[in-house]
Fold:
Amino acid sequence: TAYHNRHGKRHGKKARLRCSKKALHVNFKELGWDDWIIAPLEYEAYHCEGVCDFPLRSHLEPTNHAIIQTLMNSMDPGSTPPSCCVPTKLTPISILYTDAGNNVVYKQYEDMVVESCGCR
Amino acid sequence: CQQATIPADAPTEPLRESDQGMRSRQDGKAPRSPRDAAARKGPSAWAPPPRVEPHEYMLSLYRTYSIAEKLGINATFFQSSKAANTITSFVDRGRDDLSPSALRRQKYLFDVSTLSDKEELVGAELRLFRKAPGDHSSKAQTGLAHVQVSPCLSGRLLDSRTWGLHEAASAQAGGGWVVFDVWQALQPHQPWKKQPQQPQQLCLEVRAVAGTRTQAQQPLLDLRDLGLGRGARAQQEKALLVVFTKSRRKNLFSELRQERGAQQQGAHAPPQESTAAAQLRLQSRRMRR
Structure:
């Protein structure tokens, strides 16, 4: 929880982070997928993390529903959870792999990298 | 944007681990597929299948489209991609007749069993590596050769190319790739759809006649003279069937996830929300204020 003084500055305990894009480095070797994925062996996928609390910032591009839900949550946290910090734009990556017949396949996988996060 | 092609002098050395994050196929770890992974019960049942050496053409495709993605360009817009989001390569399994007599016809065989009928076929190419004319070349022959590709059974012409009998296959004269459009061979029949349980072979026949056009009773040329002999070919020089498909499925990973039997991973419950009631009260009080 962010504690603000009368000037709006944070002090005291660690502030809760607003919804934003954070690093998420994916290593297919660590996942055990390097036995069929040829390339890439790793990539930056990013992830969304943080709170969607009142008031929602415009850059988070909240839906109307998220605005209402966030307002409801701010009025009565017990009744409604806050809206969710989720990816709002994702982009594809190319993957080269071997299929069941040991053929080499290039495939463009959609929605693999987070471009932006928002409240939904 | 240029089409990704294999230069005639394309390097054929093994991939390095550092090569744009690609996996080295020479590291002693045999490749396998997700389907294989699901079928295996444990390490004792593990039998390494033959290693797969990625064809330089596929690596070139990957590099080109990956760079495009990083620049914010959708690779499916490339003319070379034919608007496909999946490009599968099948290596030729056919062999030439070893007899010293002239090689008039060649049969190129491709196991297309793994092609999914859930994907829309948008193109197919036969890529043949033409070696520079060597000892097999008949010095007496001059003029043009008309090389034709057709399905083995029907004989219907799919595509053809014309080149000089002694024409250097590339600028470096070391060899070059010739591309034939064989989409028609896959389009009307789509054999993998009819008998999905059995291995499906696509057979394409290559022949050549002198001149620029097919003429009746014209003798067939020796394909070895044209640099198409398949004896002692390196993996990187083997013919390739490249199939371009467009997946209609939205979640492309779901199939792989099912095959890998990863559903047990769902046993991990998400961590409980650690927000204390007191903090909530403070927060709500602050919000009201």
Observations:
- Helices of chain A lie at 28-31, 64-75.
- The first strand of chain A starts at residue 20 and ends at 22.
